[in-house]
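It is worth pausing here to work through a concrete case rather than discussing structure prediction in the abstract. The textbook approach is simple: state the sequence, then state the predicted structure, then interpret. We follow exactly that order.
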Amino acid sequence: MTMVITLKDKFKMVGGEIPAFTLPNTNGESKGPEDFASKIMVIVLLRDIH
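Step two, the predicted structure:
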């Protein structure tokens, strides 16, 4: 079963390229988008969270 969710793209960013970045994983290794090049990746950006 495949689930498709359609969201409003207020900032016109869906499908766009992202700048290079790295984040530590649970093993302390730095991982970035290039480490997941063969995978589908979803990035959720949150702002103004207090």
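Step three, interpretation. The two ends are 37 Å apart (CA to CA). Residues 19-50 form one domain.
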